[in-house]
Design brief:
The structure is a single chain. The chain is of the alpha/beta class. The strands form three sheets. A five-stranded mixed beta sheet has the order 5-4-6-7-8. It has four domains: 48 residues; 57 residues, no CATH class; 86 residues, no CATH class; 89 residues, no CATH class. The protein contains 13 helices and 13 strands.
Length: 338
């Protein structure tokens, strides 16, 4: 058997360290199991099925090779897709004995395999880049696709890997605006932003006019006073009602909806939780932190999420108060937050 494995390395090999024959061909393994049973050698010779490990290693090599020859756009898009369900993937990694460290998680064999597979699938899908269909991850630009057909190819890769994208409204907008020279900006995690004044569809696609009406949360050029308006209750609450099906809010947050930060729209919270989490607690709570400004004052937006989409805590803390707040809630140092 040792000679056979030496000649047929694609079928089996002998591990001198483990003193066992590792078979990569399940059919051959069963044949040898029958032979050993008939010969009475079944208990003296150890053979194991390594088919799954063999296939995994073979796939892994292929995906690594594809990544090595992929272009910059294919890599960027593949990496963005690999980050879907980031918090859940990280929790699974910890549950399986992984280190409680985001950098260690991203450097792990499992996460790299996932990244390489997405890049390989994008590379082999025939997706062409450099067109009017601009893809974003929240506010971060990823790449652009050349045609409507490339949008479909991209969606196909996501679907093949178990990622469900709500693309119907995006496809409709893409068809209706395919002769419009202005870009169609698409948030691949749910929402899309259409070109200036294009208002032909609602929901996932928003017009530039709609976008301009939304509050800006970047660094202000001048001090801007936050407008305080009364909210009329949960059913008619523009910020925390059933129109935002992607997020749920705890009762205490709904009650504070007229406070300065608590009246920021759900769309802003959605953008925050698309980013890499700052911390993932042992009990499943996920902490998101983002630097920003309110009324010209610099500070940190803080959101705590449970079960993937239920916001149970949110706040804005000025920079001068962050140290005390950080210690109370066991969060990151101010300089560690982006």
């Amino acid at each position: 058997m040792k000679d056979y494995c030496k000649k047929n390395g694609n079928v089996c090999r002998y591990s001198s360290e483990k003193k066992e024959y590792e078979f990569y061909d399940t059919k051959k393994l069963k044949e040898y199991e029958g032979y050993l049973k008939l010969s009475g050698l079944k208990d003296s010779v150890k053979i194991v099925n390594r088919r799954k490990e063999y296939e995994y290693a073979k796939e892994s090599r292929k995906y690594k090779d594809d990544r090595a020859t992929a272009n910059k756009e294919q890599i960027r898009l593949g990496e963005a897709l690999a980050r879907f369900n980031y918090a859940q993937l990280y929790q699974t990694y910890i549950f399986q004995g992984g280190e409680k460290d985001l950098n260690a998680f991203e450097a792990s064999e499992g996460f790299k395999f996932r990244e390489n597979k997405f890049i390989s699938d994008i590379k082999n899908s025939g997706v062409e880049f450099g067109g009017k269909y601009e893809l974003y991850d929240g506010n971060s630009y990823i790449t652009s696709l050349k045609s409507y057909e490339d949008l479909a190819r991209f969606s196909g890769v996501a679907s093949k890997n178990g990622i469900k994208l709500t693309m119907s409204e995006v496809y409709t907008s893409a068809l209706l605006t395919q002769h419009d020279p202005r870009p169609l900006k698409i948030d691949i995690k749910g929402s899309a932003i259409a070109g200036e004044e294009v208002t032909v569809v609602a929901g996932a696609v928003m017009s530039r006019n709609q976008l301009d009406k939304m509050p800006k949360y970047g660094k202000p050029k001048n001090k801007v006073e936050t407008e305080r308006t009364e909210q009329k209750g949960n059913k008619n609450n523009d910020y925390y009602n059933s129109k935002s099906k992607q997020l749920e809010y705890g009762k205490s947050i709904e009650e504070k909806a007229k406070d300065t930060y608590h009246k920021t729209p759900a769309t802003f919270d959605l953008e925050m939780i698309k980013e890499k989490p700052a911390l993932i607690r042992n009990d499943g709570r996920v902490e998101y932190l983002k630097k920003g400004y309110i009324n010209g004052k610099e500070g940190v937006f803080h959101i705590t999420v449970r079960n993937g989409n239920k916001v149970i805590h949110k706040n804005f803390i000025e920079q001068k108060d962050w140290k005390r707040y950080m210690e109370k809630y066991e969060l990151l140092d101010y300089n560690q937050i982006k």
